[in-house]
What does this fold into?
Amino acid sequence: MATLQTTKVRSLLKVSDLDSSEFERLLDSAEAFKEQPDAHADALRGQTVAMFFEKPSTRTRSSFAAAAYRLGGLPLSLRPDELQLGRGEPIGDTARVLSAYMSAIIIRTFAQTELEEVAAAADVPVINALSDTHHPLQALADMLTLRERFGRLDGLKLAYVGDGNNVANSLIEAGALTGVEVVVACPPGYEPGIAGAAVTHDPAEAVEGAHAIYTDVWVSMGEDAERDRRLGDLSRYQVNAALLDLAAPDAIFLHCLPAHRGEEVTAEVIDGPRSAVWQQAANRLPTEQALLYALAGGGAL
It folds into this structure.
């Protein structure tokens, strides 16, 4: 099993920290939690889960808070300006202190190296709630959505169209574990940061025969200064009805949200009958409940 560092406990910093069997068991557990949300309701009874967010969040913050509560735990949201980090305390020291109080640390930040530093210092599981490089929680929900829609993962084709960002990286790693073929269509210079997927500059080529077309915003958090350039570079990569029609007849549309209608996707597609984005967003809760139970609640991967 691949890891970035030796930790005292099991953490999840990227999808490839799991092997294929562990990934499948997490999806099985998530399905079970969907059927019985209050299963293992005492798993985190009397315990607190730290949720440290350096970036804005709607789905991740809300779903993880709900997941911790369903397991009997108390989710505690923390911002950098509420901690001593702003006054120069090293994040490793903060991680050591939080380990004395918390059963897990969920962190949404910029640099993947910061997550690695926290995991190396902590004595409790650390979960990547998004970094500039990886978004493993989203990939778990995405694969659960695909499995629910198609009854399988192995042999499916997913076309990711747009900026080869953190979401694309995690989808590529998830595809390697599940047998989903991931093809990325992006402009030159916007390729994913990891290997493992076919990459093309032609969106029509990427979506041919695809079971799912996936996209993300063209201007992510921290990229506002590049907005005009990015919109120009990515304008050919909009997911619209014409592009969706090139995919398989039963193809679905996926988006990690938030979405900018009229930019990376048209309203006709995201609000249309082939869109699975709301099912996808809802699946953030049971997959995170399954992961938290496995890493901190006495479950097993």
